[in-house]
Design goal:
- With 225 residues, the protein is mainly alpha-helical.
- The chain is 60% helix and 0% strand.
Amino acid sequence: MAGRRARTGRGWDAAPPRAGADDATPRPRRGRRGAADGTEPTPGESTPRDEAEVAREICLRQLAVRPRTRAELAGALAKKGISDEVSAQVLDRYDEVGIIDDAAFARAWVSSRHNGRGLARRALANELRQRGVDGEVASEALGELDEETEAETARALVDRKLRTARGEPDAVFRRLVGMLARKGYPPGVAIRAVKDALAAQSAEAAEFADQIDADALADVEGERG
């Protein structure tokens, strides 16, 4: 058939082969790291990370669980091998922007632990000290918990325990005073709270409570402590 092109075996619309295509040198494949020679990274090899970046990640993970004091974060960084210099730089910056605020931490801790667990100032002061809060900062936070509030909380704790208390009044008295002591209440506050609660419970308990000299007993307990 005149005028019709011979088939090349590659289809009527096949593009003609590029000149020199058969002789072209294959382009090098790039590895995952972008190397021109196509080499792959050594197994386990990683780019060194900035120490400050690692320190920040450690701090943020710690803070995601609950608020932390500066001392707590410094301890966590030290356990992970972060140098003192980098630790100080990161924590100083967190101080500046308010991510770390020991005063706010102390106030929140006192409010939460007193309202939630009924802890008194002495126990709260010990907990703040264990978390590295400065003594002056802790004292300021504890100052927001006055003696009247502490006494009211002690009485509420006793009233709640008395609903299920069993035994003779003297045994109940000792258990409840011991419970308040473990929560950090001074002997005088604990003894008066239990005495008043027993007096309001029953005639038998009131008779026992009348025999208690709260002041004298508090002095004895104070000397033992």
